[in-house]
């Protein structure tokens, strides 16, 4: 997510990923550290990248976080706002599904409760992550990258939309929560130091387990 690309194999910084001789004719660059192709995912179809993300392959996380989403090619600030909106929308839908299962109030009342709950818990979570990041990371841009990495790696939340079409037991929602957590941990593991990962995992558990399970 910085201005430089990364080798998906070893994480070493590289200036470019390929050389383009003509439209459709490229040569992939090898990493100066591990001597392997820096990013083989450049030539892969999107469906292959998606499958590897679901399988939690470390290489694909480096590809997405550092090479696909790069300051040289993407407006990070604009992308961040869109991801925050999508994240809150999906989190609201998750909470709505759980409340409709356990409550029999009017839809308007449930919606208001959901919005208050989602905004308060996520604001508390972001504030906690900001405090942890401030203590462990000095650069402001790195703290923004952490938030962006968490949002991107929460892609499993999109599977909640399947419940618009098919009926699933409530346990499926918590399985998706677990997959989101493991995906977030993988993104942090491939991007940042283990000390920050440890503190972040504690923050994720404090957000998901006591607050949300207690409410339902």
UniProtKB/TrEMBL annotation:
Lineage top rank: taxon: Eukaryota
Cell location: Endoplasmic reticulum membrane
Gene Ontology cellular-component terms listed: endoplasmic reticulum membrane
Biological process terms in GO annotation: intracellular sterol transport; regulation of plasma membrane sterol distribution; sphingolipid metabolic process; sterol metabolic process
Bilayer topology term: Multi-pass membrane protein
Entry's family note: Belongs to the ARV1 family.
Protein name (record): Protein ARV
Organism of origin: Eruca vesicaria subsp. sativa (Garden rocket)
């Amino acid at each position: 997510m910085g201005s430089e690309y990364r080798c998906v194999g070893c994480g070493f910084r590289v200036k470019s990923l390929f050389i383009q001789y003509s439209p459709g004719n490229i040569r992939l660059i090898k990493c100066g550290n591990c001597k392997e192709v820096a990013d083989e995912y450049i030539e892969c179809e999107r469906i292959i990248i998606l499958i590897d993300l679901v399988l939690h392959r470390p290489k694909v996380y480096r590809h997405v976080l550092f090479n696909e989403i790069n300051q040289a090619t993407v407006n990070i600030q604009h992308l961040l706002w869109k991801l925050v909106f999508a994240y809150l929308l999906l989190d609201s839908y998750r909470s709505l599904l759980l409340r409709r299962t356990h409550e029999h109030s009017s839809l308007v009342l449930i919606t208001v409760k959901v919005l208050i709950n989602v905004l308060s818990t996520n604001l508390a979570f972001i504030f906690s992550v900001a405090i942890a990041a401030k203590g462990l990371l000095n650069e402001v841009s790195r703290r923004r990258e952490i938030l962006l990495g968490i949002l991107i790696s929460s892609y499993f939340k999109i599977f909640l939309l399947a419940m618009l079409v098919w009926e699933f037991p409530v346990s499926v929602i918590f399985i998706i929560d677990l997959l989101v957590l493991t995906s977030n941990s993988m993104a942090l593991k491939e991007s940042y130091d283990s000390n920050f990962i440890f503190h972040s995992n504690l923050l994720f558990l404090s957000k998901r387990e006591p607050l949300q399970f207690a409410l339902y």
